[in-house]
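[Meeting: bench + compute handoff]

Bench side (C.D.) handed over the final construct sequence. Compute side (W.E.) agreed to return the predicted structure before the next meeting so the bench team could plan truncations. Sequence as handed over:
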Amino acid sequence: MDCPRTFCRNVQANVLPLVDLPNAFTPLSGDVNAVLKVKGFGISKMKFEIWNRWGQKLFETADQQQGWNGTYQGIVQPMDVYMYTLSVEFFDGSKVIRKGDITLIR
């Protein structure tokens, strides 16, 4: 039997942009949930901001690799619910704005 060892074929795949953000995290726990990060695919630009219940901005980044570790100016923040806004632009030009809350668990 004479079979080829390699087979090549062009395949078209539709890849949809995606963004995800956990709704809770556990800073200083030492596990994967210790830092709150935006996760996604196809993100070209983003702005991620977090505020406490009094409207004080505690964290801001435009870098998807940078996350919030639950501190503000080096001070560990209390267990509480924090508000966020997340503005994302994907490589295909589509945009998403999300607003919500995140629970910091100790």
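W.E. noted at the follow-up: The chain has one domain: 22-104. C.D. will use this when planning the next construct.
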